[in-house]
Write a structure and sequence with these properties.
CATH architecture of the largest domain: Up-down Bundle
Domain Major facilitator superfamily (MFS) profile: 27-465
Pfam families: MFS_1 (PF07690)
Subcellular location: Cell membrane
CATH topology of the largest domain: Growth Hormone, Chain: A
Keywords: Cell membrane, Membrane, Transmembrane, Transmembrane helix, Transport
Protein name: MFS transporter
Largest sheet: none
Number of helices: 20
């Protein structure tokens, strides 16, 4: 193909395999609904933490695991998901992920104890982590040379789930029970499996290298041991011995993981991408940014209920402001990236996110709590929409030859930050005499950490135009 042909408004048909396939719209609908189901589940469960803990006899520190353990499963499965799709086929892994997610949703709904529910949620996270890379591969295969536009539209499903999830969760919790939040996934999952069997084609397979199983195991062991330590610190009645042992295990596993990553060239977290050339600053930014965005989404309904005694539906609806704000400013950030570069958008967005956290953390001086919290949530969402795409671009332009690896690390670090934030906040709420005030202080600490990260991020050289 000549350069002139590439520059025309309507490019000529590409080679075999690059032409969009006839059933691409129907396949996109199936895959998009699966992603929406996953996104709804993540955000709707947050509205029911206090109810789940009360019904299953668990304090909030352990009920918070219902959210965080799914994120751990996702972190474990994301690097495995791409490898499994290349080895066994994207269609097979997509359908297996949806089916496992559906089965675990049904089992979560009938869990008799918090331990069983946590186990089911872990497998749900694994299923989601396997499903996501396979879903991207299926969409890319169906749309051929138009895959970039299709995948961009595909990622917009998550904000839609962020809007609908808290509303659905609050509504189901108000009119039914927390069991219904999980049961809603079952009929939808069955329909998606049947439709996927009929419509989805298998993308071409590729040869795969070895997966860093030892590195993934050490990473997950570190995360789980750290979560247990934080949870036990929030439950003083559990006694100090097991807390100390869990902390020692976390430190030992973390040290072993770092040593393993330094020795293995294809480690799940490549050492060369951890520091240098601004990567250390961006990785730190992603951890704190994930702690704020994921932690805020997972705990705002809980905070509104324990501090201001809002209903589950009203508390969940507060997250609508964050989601709408993100949707409004994200396309603006994408349009301005090449003209302004990533740094002004990143720093401006971080300022807005810090402002939203501060508003949320302090008691309303004039407005009703619902209006005040909605304002904080919306401001945080507006900032997230600005700095999210900018942070993504900043990390990738630093090492343009390792875009895929940097993208995977970005997701992993943000999920790890979210796990830490939810674990610490729920533990603080459990241990405090004034749970609402403790949660407000935690939001204030997050705001301070994010402001410090912004000072560091200002040191990264800006870059305009293409990269």
């Amino acid at each position: 193909m000549t350069d002139a042909a590439r520059d025309t408004d309507r490019p000529p048909a590409g080679p075999v395999g690059e032409d969009p396939l006839p059933r691409r719209v129907a396949v996109f609908a199936v895959v998009g609904l699966a992603l929406l189901m996953f996104s709804l589940d993540q955000t709707s469960v947050a509205t029911a933490l206090t109810t789940i803990g009360g019904d299953l006899g668990a304090d909030l520190a352990w009920a918070g695991w219902v959210v965080t353990i799914a994120a751990v499963g996702q972190i474990l499965a994301l690097p495995l998901g791409g490898w499994l799709s290349d080895r066994f086929g994207g269609r097979r892994m997509f359908l297996a992920g949806v089916a496992a997610f559906t089965v675990m949703s049904g089992l979560s709904a009938v869990s008799p104890s918090i331990g069983v529910l946590i186990a089911c949620r872990f497998v749900q996270g694994l299923a989601g982590g396997v499903m996501l890379p396979a879903a991207n591969g299926v969409v890319a295969h169906q749309f051929g040379r138009d895959r970039d536009r299709a995948l961009a539209l595909f990622t917009s499903v998550f904000p839609i789930g962020a809007i609908l999830g808290p509303l659905v969760g609050g509504l189901v919790l108000t009119t039914w029970s927390w069991h219904g939040i999980f049961l809603l996934n079952v009929p939808l999952g069955i329909v998606l499996v049947v439709a996927g069997l009929a419509l989805v084609d298998d993308p071409p397979h590729r040869r795969t290298g070895r997966v860093d199983g030892a590195g993934i195991a050490l990473l997950v062991l570190t995360l789980l041991a750290t979560m247990v330590t934080v949870t036990r610190l929030g439950s003083p009645a559990d006694g100090p011995v097991w807390t100390v042992l869990a902390g020692a295990l976390a430190l030992g596993a973390g040290a072993a993981f770092v040593r393993h990553a330094r020795r293995r060239p294809d480690a799940v977290v490549p050492v060369r991408l951890l520091a240098g050339r601004g990567l250390g600053i961006m990785n730190t930014t992603n951890v704190v940014f994930g702690a704020v965005v994921i932690g805020f989404s997972a705990t705002l309904p809980l905070y509104a209920q324990v501090r201001y005694d809002l209903s589950a539906f009203a508390a969940g609806a507060l997250l609508t402001g964050r989601a709408v704000g993100t949707i409004v400013t994200s396309p603006v950030a994408v349009a301005l990236l090449r003209r302004l570069g990533f740094r002004p958008l990143l720093l401006g967005g971080l300022v807005a996110v810090v402002g939203g956290l501060v508003i949320t953390a302090v008691a309303p001086p004039v407005a009703e709590p619902t209006v005040w919290l909605l304002a904080g949530s919306t401001l945080l969402g507006l900032g997230t929409g600005l700095c999210g795409p900018a942070a993504n671009n900043a990390g990738m332009h630093l090492v343009p030859d390792d875009v895929a690896a940097v993208s995977g690390l970005r997701i992993m670090f943000r999920q790890m930050g979210g796990i830490a934030a939810v674990s610490v906040l729920t533990a603080a709420v459990t241990a405090a005499d004034d749970p609402g005030l403790a949660a407000g202080v935690a939001y204030g600490v997050l705001a301070a950490l994010l402001a410090a990260v912004g000072v560091l991020a200002a040191r990264i050289p800006n870059r305009r135009g293409r990269w």
